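Lab notebook, bench 4. The sequencing result for the construct came back, and we need a structural model before the next group meeting so we can plan mutations. Quick request posted to the team channel:

Model the 3D structure of this chain.
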Amino acid sequence: MAKADLWAVFDAEERKRGEQTGLDTLVVHAVNGGR
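Done. Here's the predicted structure in token form:
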């Protein structure tokens, strides 16, 4: 569960930088997490 919290925080940071980048990062994390 800690891992999910960590990537969620990183995604939040990315969203602050830019929604486009945040969405791309979320997808990348989702793909990496799936594997």
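The mean pLDDT is 72.
Will bring this to the meeting.
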